[in-house]
Each structure stands twice: as C-alpha cells, then as structure tokens.
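Sharing a chain and its predicted structure for anyone who wants a worked example. Both blocks are below, sequence first, tokens second.
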Amino acid sequence: MNGTWTVTHRSPLIIHTFTAPEIGWLVNSHIVEFSSQLFAVDAQYTLPLAKKVIDYAAKLKKPIRRLYVTHYHPDHLLGAAAFDAPLHALSSVADKIATVGDRVASEEHEKVGDDIPEKARRVDYHVAEGEEMVDDVRLAHLRLREAETEDALVIAFPGEGVIIVQDLVYHGAHPFFGERRFESWRATVKEYRELPYDLILPGHGLPGGKDLYDQMLEYVDFAENALKAAKDRNDFKQRLLEHFPNHGGVAVAEHQLRFLFRSAK
C-alpha cells in the first residue's frame, strides 16, 4: 500500500506526483511546489492514502495553500476530508459535489468502510477559467468539457511546459467510461495533444510525454468497439483485460460496469 512518488523539476517549479497503489485505483495527487507554498491537486480515494500525501507535503516545510479537486469522482474527491487546506474547484464541479457528493461517499463507504468518509467535503472556493501569477509562475485554469465526465479542471504552467490534465489521460491504467463520452473524449484528447506542453501529468499512472495522448486514443477506440461487441458486463471487462494485460487500475474497470450495464444483474 505504499504507492509511488515521482518528482519532476521544471525550474522554478517542483512537482511531486503520488500515484496510489492498486487499492487506491492508481489515482494521482500532485503537489505543486512554488518558492513559498504548495498547491495540491486531487485528494485520493481513501483517507489513509490522503494522509500519505499530507505527510509527504509536511516534509517540504511549506504550507498547502490550496487543494484542488478536478472533478467529482470518488477517487479524486473523497480524501479531501483529510486536508486542512481550502478546497478549490470549478463552479460546475462544486455544484456537482453539492448535489451527488454525499451519495458517492455513502456508496463507497458502504463498500470500503471507515477508510472512506461518510460524506463528501464541500468546496470552499470556486475556480474561474483564466490565468494568474503565483510566486512569479504563470498558472492557467482550463475547463475540460465532455471527456471522462461533463466538467473537469485542468491546470497548466505555460512557462514550464507542464499541464495537469488528470483524467483526460490515463497512463498504464484502465480508464472509466461510465458516462459513455467516447466521441467527445476522443476529440478533446486530440485538441489537447496540439497544445504546447511536453510534460503531461495524468490522473492515473506515471507522468509522461505527448505519447500519452496517443495511448489514450488507442484505448478509447478499443473500449468503444469492445462495448458494442460485448455480450454482457463480464465479456466487456474480459476484452479490456486481455487487450491491455499490463494495465493496472482493475478496480476502475470494475467500477464502471454498473454504469455501463445498468440493467444487468
């Protein structure tokens, strides 16, 4: 249950990426280290894994000034209850959390137990699209639409060539297709592939380069065709596991089945 830390230096930024172990769905939390402060991006699935991120940040001897939650899915949201930092999200994501967050938390708490909070933490501050300066670093907030989910936050650093796309891209991990946005997800990946960023920080799996976009497109194409051809939920899952045998995050592949096959027993 250790997870993996990857540290990326893009002066003057240092970005510390925690990739959770399988029990945490390989989800990423990123700690963006500025000269005087830290921003955390996404909060982990469970409280113990969130605590690992918090403990690591404490060793950096700088305060966490913001915790971003990029979208409402449980693996990015539920660990937020462990953080003291103010929670930031897009207005649309904040509304979604207010509407369905407690149900999401309750469902996951029932499955996992006390490592999951019974209620979802609410957003403290709404994030607007646009740019700002933080410790002499230019930071851009982008609204990602109609990819894995309806709305999500992307955080980019134009001067350093770094972009935190989160669940627009998975790296070596099974994505979540529960909202069936294959066509728009594919189009958005192609759009982001053309942006001038060479370091891509995904929502699951290790950081990488622009090749992550092509890998994601391959998976989207296969999953869409597999879903059309599958006889049932087990057949669909088996097709994914056989075609991508080295991918982790099998819990995500399983989690999506109840959304894709709602009438199945």
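Comments welcome. The longest strand covers residues 137-145.
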